[in-house]
Amino acid sequence: RAIQHKGWVAGDNHSGNYIVAPVKGKMHYYFTDIKDGGHGPLFYNFANLVLNTHAVTKRTDSAKIHQVTDLLIDSYLKGLKGERVLEPTPIREALQTSMAEYRRMQNEDVQRFLNPSRSGFDFNKKSIEPLTNRSTRIVKMKADMTAALQATGVVKTVLDFAIRLKERGGSKDLDRYWALVETKSGELRILEFKEINVPAAQVVQPSGLSLRAHTEKMMDVYFPDADPTIKPVDLNGQLFMMRPRKVDLISVPYKQKNTDQVVELLTYARYAAYQTRTKQASTTPTLAAYIKFIENEPAKFQLLIRQLVKDYYARLEDKVAST
To answer: pTM (2 decimals)?
Structure first.
């Protein structure tokens, strides 16, 4: 019964995929990495968060699996029911960042990638390379990026393009391009174009939508508001996500060096469990029945999650043993 209740799920649900960033001039905390999401069982969305949390904290013995799972279930259920869970202090402080301060941080970030004349990118940086290929494909992609940037209504001039090296950053199998622009307010900004492939959830359970429509649906569910600088755009027949380069306002400790950092990560994970319900609750017709199942049979729900985690680690151990 746990998997019969379906909605729009994240696909790669972990606390590091939530950010604090402005959307239409207001700070929000929201899930941003929608590339693997789609329509599927809500149970899997939450189970994915639990698995990822155990994986990064390495809390894999039975007692710790019970402890962490119960902690996340409590927050998850409160989120589904619309109850309040207090955000961790770093998130609350990040949400209080003024737009003036955020723009100052953006200015500092951009400076790191500028050449001495401030007219383009500094390609002595090891993370980017010039987009100088004159092939028909690249010329068309540059034209399409320029058109998309100008359509935002905030870009005055496109100054330069770069390609983000694949061996750096997340999603390293995907093409990522950068554009350096001057805004109409006279500020320099970097916008990224990140390739969109068929999401993992679409492969397992197709939504029946085109890739663009699927992406727009995920954005509607998980993003706080529409923003002209955050949208899927077509570059020479391939779909890319256009978005401003973000400034990190929170830092999730994925490599914990002590117990305090483990506790800190679990605090972020607990809030992510609460946020997992986000707007997906309104897209799930059987939400009330799903909540009732968790409330009426908590032991069964806990057992399902715990068993999933144990099975996952058992398979990992078998795989390691066989190599």
So the answer is: 0.86
